[in-house]
């Protein structure tokens, strides 16, 4: 059942309960009032005929009003209609013998006794409720029907009013699932519905930004893949065509080998990044000392920095033991140093520091303050700095962040004292190396 139908049913239910409760209360009140009016009427009649009870005309009038007369003798005996006599005996009728008026109720019979002569009399009348009850029930049923009809119409109108913006939201959501990103929902209606519309619009904006970022990322990855592939293809064709021969073969082979390795690293990083969130991504966590890993990486990167004219420095002030995967940790260090070397000009420093944390700093241009929090978002820095400096695809930093996180650590980016950017890795410490 749709929303409009459910709201209509809800309104019908509420109206039915309200009319039923109101009818029950009204019946009780009307019946009570009817009984009170009947007693007041009978009391006034008893007072009027107290001195004329022997008048046959009066008796006929009373009988015409369905009022029974019961005679009370001076000795306390009562005579008259059997049901009326029982009703009189059910009340304290002997008080009339001492000159007092008596009023009482026996079941549905009202009793009014008065002294008269040496004895007295009593008027007995049934409370007239049946006719009133039937009239009241008819009125309540009529009101119930009218109320239910009005509630049904109001519920349908309300449901249609509330469902219209929801249908607009659903229509936009279906269009979004089909690939449309240019549609937005008008923000209108009650606060809750407006909030839903805003949420869908925010989702559409987020999807649009995400897909735009993914397109930029794919373009940058395609460019990074095409560069080494172009070099490998070009030099391979030169070798195949015999253009390169003799002493030129070895340098060309070196270039092909380096570009192939570069291509392999990029493809490996892409695969690792894609598998990072999968359950089968393996990590061999153990207690390891950071210093040997850092010094091993420093030997390689010292040579690479020297070849680029960049000053490499290793700072070790502590030798912490942490819980990590040694192979993945080396991958993290290599990724951070490769990113630092890419942006650092000749003559400027790259620093690998080890204390209670692991840190890579560079003397490059650094980042804007608002870019440090998003430095590890895939493709963000590439999109912002591709026209002003050498940038990678963003795969490296995203992979580094994912690896550190999977090892239970944290990594943050910030400004470095050397003028560029600093990336600080904090891993879970352990008390001693494995096997100690």
TrEMBL record:
EC number assigned by the record: 2.7.13.3
Chain ranges passing through the membrane: 140-163
Residues in coiled coil: none
UniProt-annotated location(s): Cell membrane
GO CC term (a single one): plasma membrane
Keyword vocabulary terms for this entry: Kinase, Membrane, Phosphoprotein, Transferase, Transmembrane, Transmembrane helix, Two-component regulatory system
Protein name: histidine kinase
Source organism per UniProt: Lentzea albidocapillata subsp. violacea
């Amino acid at each position: 059942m749709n929303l409009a139908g459910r709201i209509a049913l809800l309104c019908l239910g509420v109206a039915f309960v309200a009319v039923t409760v109101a009818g029950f209360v009204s019946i009780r009140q009307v019946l009570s009032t009817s009984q009170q009016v009947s007693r007041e009427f009978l009391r006034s009649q008893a007072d009027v005929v107290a001195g004329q009870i022997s008048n046959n005309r009066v008796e006929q009038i009373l009988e015409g009003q369905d009022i029974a007369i019961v005679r009370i003798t001076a000795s306390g005996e009562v005579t008259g209609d059997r049901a009326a006599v029982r009703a009189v005996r059910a009340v304290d009728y002997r008080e009339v013998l001492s000159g007092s008026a008596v009023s009482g109720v026996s079941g549905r019979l009202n009793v009014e006794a008065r002294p008269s002569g040496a004895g007295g009399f009593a008027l007995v009348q049934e409370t007239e409720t049946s006719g009133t009850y039937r009239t009241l029930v008819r009125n309540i049923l009529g009101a119930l029907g009218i109320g239910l009809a009005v509630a049904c119409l109001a519920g349908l109108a309300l449901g249609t009013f509330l469902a219209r913006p929801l249908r607009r939201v659903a229509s936009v959501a279906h269009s979004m699932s089909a690939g449309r990103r240019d549609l937005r929902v008008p923000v209108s209606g009650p606060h809750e519905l407006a909030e839903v519309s805003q949420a869908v619009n925010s989702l559409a904006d987020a999807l649009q930004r995400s897909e735009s970022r993914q397109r930029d990322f794919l373009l940058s990855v395609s460019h990074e893949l095409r560069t080494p592939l172009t070099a490998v293809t070009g030099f391979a064709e030169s070798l195949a065509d015999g253009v390169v021969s003799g002493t030129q073969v070895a340098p060309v082979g070196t270039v092909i080998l380096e570009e192939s390795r570069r291509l392999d690293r990029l493809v490996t990083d892409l695969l690792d990044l894609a598998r990072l969130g999968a359950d089968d991504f393996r990590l061999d966590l153990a207690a390891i000392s950071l210093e040997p890993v850092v010094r091993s990486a420093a030997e390689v990167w010292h040579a690479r920095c020297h070849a680029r004219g960049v000053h490499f420095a290793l700072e070790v002030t502590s030798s912490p033991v942490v819980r990590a995967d040694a192979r993945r940790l080396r991958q993290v260090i290599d990724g951070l140093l490769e990113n630092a070397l890419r942006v650092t000009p000749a003559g400027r420093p790259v620093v690998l520091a080890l204390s209670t944390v692991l840190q890579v700093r560079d003397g490059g241009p650094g980042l804007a303050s608002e870019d440090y929090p998003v430095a590890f978002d895939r493709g963000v820095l590439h999109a912002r700095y591709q026209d002003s400096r050498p940038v990678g695809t963003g795969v490296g930093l995203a992979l580094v962040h994912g690896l550190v996180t999977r090892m239970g650590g944290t990594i943050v980016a910030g400004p470095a004292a050397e003028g560029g950017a600093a990336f600080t890795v904090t891993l879970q410490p352990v008390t001693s190396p494995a096997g100690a």
